[in-house]
Design the sequence.
């Protein structure tokens, strides 16, 4: 976590904590029938209680509603590397599923993906929070891989916490690990390259072998890989990791992204030095010690269409 993110979270917690502490004091005085101060102070007490009630509603919403509200986002980009008159290439991008032992949105994913009629399903890491969650993830990945060709890369959870686990075996999904593949999708030629977070050497070797005149998509978990994407002329970089903050504020966005780039690549579509970047908010929630909540950053299934620019 960046120092600025620590400060941001600390200020937010102090503000929220202060509201609840003051609201508690006001309520105690009212129960004891000891009203404090004049009209202005009483108004402040009323307002603080209202804010505390709103905050409680937000907490309940973040715990029980938003984590189950899958949103489907649609994005179009164009490229001169897609032949004139060719149909668009339709991609479903999923990330950060973070399966636990008890499924949440996983049962809804196959039908939601199937309805988008994708040419490719591309996934960018952090798929399960535990070995029990691994079995949940595998069962649904197997179904997804039957809908359309499915390509995956590992995230930091697979690489750091479960390095000996082979999560994709037997699912029908294709892992990119310092490798690149050339695909024909309709009249368009598409290259896919990707690697796990630790395999930078393999990633560079894979990207170096792709012809510059053909459309290149890079799959990598961390947004900070955007610099490799730019260096090698990647046309579309798909990534995740940030969860869109998982907890965000209206008109401000993420409090924390856990990315070296902070809020520069937070969620959604960006053009970074000529490379299109899509940062997926993810489907699940981080499996650490923090509560499983989402606020103002709902789970996302991203649909990206690549069209001819001519």
Sequence:
């Amino acid at each position: 976590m960046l120092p600025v993110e620590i400060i941001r979270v600390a200020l937010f917690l102090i503000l929220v904590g202060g509201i609840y502490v003051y609201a508690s004091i006001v309520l105690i005085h009212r129960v004891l029938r000891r009203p404090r101060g004049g009209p202005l102070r009483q108004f402040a007490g009323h307002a603080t209680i209202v804010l505390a009630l709103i905050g409680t509603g937000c907490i309940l919403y973040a715990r029980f509603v938003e984590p189950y509200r899958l949103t489907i986002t649609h994005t179009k980009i164009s490229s001169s590397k897609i032949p004139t008159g060719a149909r668009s290439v339709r991609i479903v991008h999923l990330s950060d599923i973070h399966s636990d032992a008890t499924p949440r949105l996983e049962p809804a994913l196959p039908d939601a993906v199937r309805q988008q009629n994708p040419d490719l399903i591309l996934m960018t890491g952090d798929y399960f929070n535990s070995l029990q969650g691994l079995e949940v993830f595998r069962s649904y990945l197997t179904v997804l891989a039957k809908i359309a060709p499915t390509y995956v890369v590992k995230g930091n959870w697979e690489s750091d916490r479960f390095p000996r686990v082979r999560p994709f075996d037997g699912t029908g999904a294709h892992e990119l690990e310092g490798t690149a593949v050339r695909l024909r999708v309709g009249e368009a030629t598409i290259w896919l390259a990707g690697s796990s977070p630790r395999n930078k050497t393999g990633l560079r070797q894979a990207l170096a072998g792709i012809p510059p005149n053909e459309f290149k998509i890079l799959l990598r978990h961390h947004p900070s890989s955007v610099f490799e994407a730019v260096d090698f002329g990647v046309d579309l970089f798909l990534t995740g990791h940030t969860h869109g903050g998982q907890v965000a504020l209206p008109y401000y966005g993420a409090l924390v992204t856990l990315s070296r780039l902070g809020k520069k690549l937070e969620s959604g579509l960006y053009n970074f030095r000529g490379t299109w970047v899509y940062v997926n908010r993810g489907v699940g929630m981080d499996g650490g010690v923090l509560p499983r909540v989402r606020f103002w950053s709902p789970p996302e299934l991203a649909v990206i269409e690549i069209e001819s620019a001519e």
